[in-house]
Each structure stands twice: as structure tokens, then as C-alpha cells.
């Protein structure tokens, strides 16, 4: 009985103090929980998110806002950033040990910081702001309150996004490797494998999807022997979980073996914001677009330059080489940051595979690729594609619009960088409309517009996707709607709120002036609000709002009220 009790204590300790053996170079227990409630995660480092790897840990706040947030260690507040999307209201603390912590999706900061922020916003007449601070301005001690939690920015529920970064490189590190008190005894759960014929591009095939089931202490396939190409790539759909939370997380490491020989490994740590978009190469992007699940590739696509997350790969970038007439043992080992382990096992046998269909025009991942016809042009650099693609193009005549519609490849092929797309109008454009043209993009589900610049007969916009494009004009100004009555007595109100509707592009500028002076409105989606403070005294007031879109269309709204 005593032995069992000691074993349970050891298990609890090793599952709540994360990964000392995995990452002993990171300080353990230096950083504290930034909240005064137990850490339950809504997301972890390395999760696959649209266009990026998740860069921190999302700590639940019991579904509530305005919980006190504390400095994770001694240091100084080095940066304040206010963003409509992204991290929303965010604070950064630089620590003397070479790390910086980030606290995001906050509401207000502590009063002295909040007042400094507000003064800077009024001085610059801009709500969106990014301030770098000196070490002596706002020093903090470990456990000192710095803010209140919220749901600002690109957040869908109340929580605190917490990051630990290398101060010099600014790269986010896996915060679950620093000994934070997180209870996790649950190993990763795999659901499906995807098999690829790597004699051809990943974008020119449909992988074979295989379900997994748990048998004993392993996950296996049915049948247990899978037929595959002589050069086979594997992708894995899996999630991780922790105690006390139903939210899906991601594993920390993956290792895959053929006949017990290591073929490759993945370690999700130290991913900079400058390379986070390589998520599109780390996963099967097409499969995600089609099915919604994240299949993580146990191989590196040739155009994937996020090499540091692959500590070991065979000479074929983690691709498996199968011998004819031999049945190979294949297994995958997954671990989360707490060291919980999952094993997947099956057998692979080579089968004769069909040759890929002929391709009329191949865009290679390692060379520049251009397309031109009389009415549309673009060029991709040698760093824009992750694998070769069989390029396709279709002209869809449209006599009703200012241009035909152009299907440029498919929306399920990712492009890494922005590129200039040029389209010519198919009918004369009046001079006064040249600056009102919009390049419209559709992925088949929704459309999005960007203001197009006129240059030497072409309308040009910087885009980052493939899909359907065409030209429209935008001469309609944004619509401003008051969410309170005109000439209202607002003595008990806490806010002024206005809705701005812009259909074709986006709101470029929003300016509010109270009795001729700039007033600090905060954007939240298409709502702009002002919290009453000392900048609005008692009495009658005249508020003037001015909004412009990307094409320079402008709306004004005068609103009168009494406070």
C-alpha cells in the first residue's frame, strides 16, 4: 500500500511539472501561473490554426472576464499593443533571465499603465497603438497584478493567451516546458492516418485515409497491413487532451519508424512569427480545406523551410522507402509536453502504383513561375510554393462586369507570400472610376475585395491566395448606424456605440470628434465604441464621425446627445 501511494505521488509530480527531462535548458518553476486559478487549457503551443501555429497557451478564465492577471516573474512592462484583431489588448514583460512573457486578449490594464496608454492614444490620435517602454517606466515583481482578463482581439471566448518568448529572437517557445503547474495525465489520441504516393506532388493526388482504433495499449489499423507506394508519405490526424478540460490540444513530439529505424521526428517548439505561415506546408492544406481536419505530415514538403521543428529526418525528408515483396513494420510514437505517450503500429507492403496523369503545365516549387495572357498576369517566386502543382486556368466570360472572371488554379493550393495580380478591364472604365476599382476574390464560399491600383492599363492588387478573381467598382460609402437614440440623455450610459457596414472592401479610417476634438473609439468587429471618461464632461455635445473605406468613399454622421 505504501509503495502504491509513493508511486501515485511520483506520477502526479511528473504529470504536473512539465518536461524537465525533455527541455532541461529551460528554467523550471521560474514563471508562475499568470492567474490565481488552476491552469485549464483551451489551447496549447503548436496547435494548427488558420494560417499559423498557435504560439502560446490559452488559459481558461471560467467563462468570465475581468479576472486579475499577474506578472509571471520579475521584470518590466516593455511593450503595450492595442489591436482590433490578433491579441487585442496585450502587455509584454521583459525578464532579466532572457525571456519575455506576453499576456493577450486582456481588458483594462492596471490604472497607472491604462492612463499612460490613454495619454499616448490622445497624443497620437489613434486607438491602435504599439508602444515600446523603458525598463524604469513600469517595473513589476513576480505576482504583481498587471491587468484584468478579457475577450478582446481575435478571441472567441474569455481567456488569457500567455506566451514565453526568447527576448533576443522574439521567437515564442513552448510554454508547457517551463514547469508551470498543469495537471496532465492524458496521452494524445490519434484518429486517422493518410497515405501518399510520394512519386508525385502532394497536390496532385488524393490520399488514402485509414481509421485507427485502440487495441490494448496501442492504436492499430484495420486491416493491419496497408498497401502503399514504394515511396510513401504519412500524415496523422490526432488531438491531445489534459485533465479537467475537453478542449483539443496538440502533441509535442512525433517520431516515426520503419522496421525500428527512425525515419523522422517533429518537435513543436521555438516557432517564430516570421515562419509560422509554414503551417500550410506542415499540414495537408488541401485535405484541411476539403474535410476541415488537420492532417499533420510526418515528412517535410520540399518547399517547407521550417526546418528547425524537424530534429531528425532521413535523406528523403521523412518519406518511407518500401522494398518490393517485403512487409515492413511501421510505428509512430507521440508524446505531449507532460511525457504522456501514444504508440501507433501497422504493417506496410509495397503495391504497384499508377503513374501520375500528364500535366499540361507544371509550376515548380523551386523556380519562379509566371502566367500571362492579354488580360491577367502574375508571377510567383521560388519561395511561394511548397510542392509542384499542375497549374490550371479558366477564363469565365462575364459581359455584365468590368472584367471576365478568372479561375486561377484552386483555392485549396496554398501560396506562402503575397504576389501582385494584374487584371485588365474588358470594357472602358470612366476616368472617375479608375480609383474606385476593387479586385474581388472568392474561395467558393465567401468573397473578399481589395482596392486595386491602376497602372499602365492594369488594375493591380496584392493577394495571397489562388482561386476566382474579377473586377468590380466600389462607389458606395460605408454606412454608419447609431446604436443609441438621437438627442438622447445619456447620464446613466457607460458607452457610445456605432455600427459601420462596409460591403466591398474594409474600413480604412474611423475618426470621432467630440465638440471638435478627437475622441478615442475602440473597434470590435464592425462596432466602434467609446467608454465615457473625463474627455466627455456633463452637458450637451456634438459628435462627428467620419469613416472611409479602402477606395476613399467617405461617410459622415453627426450625433447630438446630453450627458
Please provide a brief summary of the model.
The chain has 563 residues and is mainly β. It contains four helices and 45 strands.
What does this molecule look like?
By secondary structure, the protein is mainly β. The chain has 4 domains: 164 residues, Glucose Permease (Domain IIA) (Distorted Sandwich); 162 residues, no CATH class; 112 residues, Chondroitinase Ac, Chain A, domain 3 (Sandwich); 84 residues, Immunoglobulin-like (Sandwich). It contains 4 helices and 45 strands. The strands form 8 sheets. Strands 1, 4, 5, 6, 7, 8, 9, 10, 11, 12 and 13 form an 11-stranded antiparallel beta sheet that branches. Strands 14, 15, 16, 17, 18, 19, 20, 21, 22, 23 and 24 form an 11-stranded mixed beta sheet that branches. β44 and β45 form a beta hairpin. The N and C termini lie far apart (71 Å). The N terminus is likely disordered.
Helicity level:
under 10%
The largest sheet, given as strand count, sense and whether it forms a barrel, is: 11 strands, antiparallel
Structure class: mainly beta
Number of domains: 4
Number of helices: 4
Amino acid at each position: 500500500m505504501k509503495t502504491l501511494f509513493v508511486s501515485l505521488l511520483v506520477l502526479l509530480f511528473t504529470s504536473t511539472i512539465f518536461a524537465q527531462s525533455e527541455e532541461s535548458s529551460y528554467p523550471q518553476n521560474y514563471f508562475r501561473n499568470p492567474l490565481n486559478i488552476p491552469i485549464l487549457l483551451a489551447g496549447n503551443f503548436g496547435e494548427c490554426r488558420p494560417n499559423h501555429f498557435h504560439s502560446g497557451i490559452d488559459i481558461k478564465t471560467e467563462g468570465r472576464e475581468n479576472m486579475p492577471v499577474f506578472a509571471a516573474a520579475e521584470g518590466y512592462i516593455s511593450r503595450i499593443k492595442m489591436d482590433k484583431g490578433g491579441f487585442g489588448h496585450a502587455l509584454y514583460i521583459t525578464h532579466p533571465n532572457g525571456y519575455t512573457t506576453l499576456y493577450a486578449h486582456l481588458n483594462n490594464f492596471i490604472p497607472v499603465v491604462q492612463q499612460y496608454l490613454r495619454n499616448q492614444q490622445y497624443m497620437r490620435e489613434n486607438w491602435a497603438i504599439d508602444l515600446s517602454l523603458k525598463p524604469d517606466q513600469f517595473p513589476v515583481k513576480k505576482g504583481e497584478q498587471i491587468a484584468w482578463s478579457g475577450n478582446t482581439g481575435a478571441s472567441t471566448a474569455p481567456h488569457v493567451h500567455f506566451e514565453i518568448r526568447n527576448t533576443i529572437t522574439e521567437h515564442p517557445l513552448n510554454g508547457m516546458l517551463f514547469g508551470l503547474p498543469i495537471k496532465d495525465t492524458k496521452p494524445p489520441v490519434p484518429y486517422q492516418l493518410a497515405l501518399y504516393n510520394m512519386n508525385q506532388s502532394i497536390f496532385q493526388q488524393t490520399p488514402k485515409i485509414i481509421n485507427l482504433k485502440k487495441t490494448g495499449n496501442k492504436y492499430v489499423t484495420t486491416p493491419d497491413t496497408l498497401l502503399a507506394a514504394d515511396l510513401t508519405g504519412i500524415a496523422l490526424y490526432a488531438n491531445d487532451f489534459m485533465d479537467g478540460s475537453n478542449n483539443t490540444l496538440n502533441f509535442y513530439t512525433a517520431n516515426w519508424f520503419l522496421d525500428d529505424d527512425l525515419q523522422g521526428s517533429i518537435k513543436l517548439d521555438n516557432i517564430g512569427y516570421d515562419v509560422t505561415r509554414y503551417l500550410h506546408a506542415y499540414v495537408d492544406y488541401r485535405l484541411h480545406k476539403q474535410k476541415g481536419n488537420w492532417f499533420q505530415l510526418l515528412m517535410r514538403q520540399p518547399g517547407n523551410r521550417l526546418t528547425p521543428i524537424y530534429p531528425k529526418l532521413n535523406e528523403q525528408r521523412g518519406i518511407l522507402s518500401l522494398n518490393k515483396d517485403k512487409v515492413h513494420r511501421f510505428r509512430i510514437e507521440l508524446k505531449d509536453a507532460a511525457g504522456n505517450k501514444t504508440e501507433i503500429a501497422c504493417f506496410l507492403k509495397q503495391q504497384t502504383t499508377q503513374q501520375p496523369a500528364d500535366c499540361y503545365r507544371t509550376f515548380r516549387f523551386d523556380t519562379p513561375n509566371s502566367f500571362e495572357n492579354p488580360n491577367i498576369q502574375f508571377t510567383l517566386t521560388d519561395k511561394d510554393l511548397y510542392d509542384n502543382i499542375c497549374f490550371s486556368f479558366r477564363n469565365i466570360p462575364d459581359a455584365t462586369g468590368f472584367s471576365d472572371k478568372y479561375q486561377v488554379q484552386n483555392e485549396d493550393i496554398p501560396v506562402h507570400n503575397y504576389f501582385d495580380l494584374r487584371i485588365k478591364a474588358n470594357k472602358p472604365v470612366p476616368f472617375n472610376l479608375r480609383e474606385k476599382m476593387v479586385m474581388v476574390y472568392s474561395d467558393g464560399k465567401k468573397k473578399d475585395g481589395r482596392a486595386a491600383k491602376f497602372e499602365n492599363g492594369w488594375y493591380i492588387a496584392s493577394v495571397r491566395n489562388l482561386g476566382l478573381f474579377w473586377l468590380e467598382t466600389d462607389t458606395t460609402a460605408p454606412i454608419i448606424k447609431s446604436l443609441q437614440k438621437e438627442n438622447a440623455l445619456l447620464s446613466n450610459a457607460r458607452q457610445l456605440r456605432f455600427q459601420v457596414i462596409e460591403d466591398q472592401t474594409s474600413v480604412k479610417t474611423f475618426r470621432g470628434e467630440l465638440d471638435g476634438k478627437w475622441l478615442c473609439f475602440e473597434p470590435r468587429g464592425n462596432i466602434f465604441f467609446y467608454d465615457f471618461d473625463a474627455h466627455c464632461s456633463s452637458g450637451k455635445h456634438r459628435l462627428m464621425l467620419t469613416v472611409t473605406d479602402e477606395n476613399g468613399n467617405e461617410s459622415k454622421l453627426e450625433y447630438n446627445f446630453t450627458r
